[in-house]
Structures are given as structure tokens and as C-alpha cells.
Amino acid sequence: MRLLITGGNGQLGRAFAALASMPDCQVLPLNSQELDVTDPRQLEDRFTKFPPDAVVHAGAYTAVDQAELEIDKAFRVNVVGTGNVAAACLKFCSKMVYISTDYVFDGSQNKPYTEFDRPNPLNVYGRTKLEGELLAARICPRLFVVRTSWLYGDGRNFVRTILKLAQEQASLSIVNDQTGTPTYAMDLARGILSLIAGAGYGTYHMSNSGQCTWYEFAAAILRLAGANVTIKPVSTAESSRPAVRPRYSTLRNYMQELTGGDCFRPWEAALADYIKQIKPGNASY
């Protein structure tokens, strides 16, 4: 299988690169400098040189707060760029995996969201990702939409930020009124590979199981890392972020449950494995 990854320098892209030694699988991760998805000619050239059996479109504008100021840029990358990738996949008969987000939901319900719940994004980033889903579905029939949440892996993420701050500060203030599910990029990459192997096209939620607040997530990180730092729970209002976040965005991997079983492990177990890989004092924090 020939697998092309957009956003190759991101956390999910790096997870796929780490799986590149898989037998019978060629993985080509491309970052935004190597492939500008808003340029159809670049896509045509890349697909011609490396005709992929499947494309994981992980490249995106992901700066949630900045998107409120750079609306046109966010729509250009997340909607127009996604449409270009979908058109290239259609032309080259490639399967497409579009990585979407829990932020397509407004957080108004108190139970995990399934693939059959109605999206209603609260911020620009969520709107662009939802519009990307809809546009890709209109263009590419061999499409998997994969929604995930609170991703961490190799690269800048909440886990590394908390560990870095724990080295610099005696106390931390963490939001405690937003609930979701941390998801380990390696677990997500493996789940996507199993999805690509089949032809059950459609929308799938793929997150580790369970749920927590950002405060509870931070507490687990510090405990597993053995960091002695005081953390204080604060409200979203106190954090003063430009973009509105859903207060509840836990995803239920319902389509996986219906079509063969949800293989994603609890978020605590995935986090413990990740923390073990990070050496104390790592400058990449």
C-alpha cells in the first residue's frame, strides 16, 4: 500500500512516519512546505510522482484562537485545500481519510457524541473543519471522515506543555469545565490503518476511551511524570481565550462499535505509555 500523508510534520503525520517500517507499506509524509494543499498543481505533481492507494489528509489550519482573526486563511486551508485533496483522490482513484475534530459539536449535550449527532460548531476552526467534511463528501466517494479529540504525540502538545511548565513554575492553573478525551496519535494512526484496509466509507469517531477535563488530564500527566507541582482548577471564563470552546466534546466511537468493535484503549493507559517514552529534562518539552 502506498500511503501519502499531508501535514507530515504534525503529530499524526509523525506517528505514521514511525509506522513506515510496516511490511508492504510505503509511507510518504509531506509537510506544508513540501505540499501546499491550496495549490492544485502541486497536488497533481505529487500524485503523479507517487500515486497513492490512500491519502490521510491530516494537514490543516489548527490554531483555534488565531482562526478567529485569520478567518480567510483558515477557510482556504481547511476547506479549499481539503476540496483540492478530495479532487486529486477522485482523479487518481485513491481512498481519502479526512481528519476532523470534536470541535464540530457545540458541547450542549451531556453524553458522548456519536457520528449520528448533529454538528453545530461554536468557533471558526470547527466551522472550517465541518465544511471540509461536507466538501470532501461531495467530491470523493471513497472517503473516510475521522473525527478525533485532544490529540498528543511527537510534537508540541498539551502533555509536553504541562511538563515544560512544571519545570518552570511551582503552580499551574488549568481549565476544569471543558470535558473531552485525550487521544494518543500512535493509537489513532493504527486505527486509521485498520480503517483504510476496508471499504466501509463514512464518518467515524476515533478517540481513546473515557473522558476527563483539562484539569484532570494535567493532574494525570503530572502524577505519571512524578512532578511535584500544585495545580489549581479554573473556569473557561477565567482563561480568557478568544475562541469559544465546547464545554463537553467527548466522542463515542459508535460506528466502530457497530461494525466490528472499538479497539481504542482507555486514555489513561495510552498516556502512561506516552509518558514512559519522554525522558526527564527532555529539551523538546
From TrEMBL:
Domain (RmlD-like substrate binding): residue spans on this chain: 1-278
Superkingdom to which the source organism belongs: Bacteria
Record has Transit peptide as a keyword: no
One Pfam family of this chain: RmlD_sub_bind
Keyword annotations: NADP, Oxidoreductase
The keyword Transcription regulation is annotated on this UniProt entry: no
Top-level class of the enzyme under EC nomenclature: oxidoreductase
CDD domains: dTDP_HR_like_SDR_e
One Gene Ontology MF term: dTDP-4-dehydrorhamnose reductase activity
EC number: 1.1.1.133
Pathway: Carbohydrate biosynthesis; dTDP-L-rhamnose biosynthesis
Summary of the function given for this chain in its UniProt record: Catalyzes the reduction of dTDP-6-deoxy-L-lyxo-4-hexulose to yield dTDP-L-rhamnose.
UniProt similarity note: Belongs to the dTDP-4-dehydrorhamnose reductase family.
NCBIfam families, per the entry: rmlD (TIGR01214)
Protein name: dTDP-4-dehydrorhamnose reductase
Higher taxonomy: Bacteria, Bacillati, Bacillota, Negativicutes, Acetonemataceae
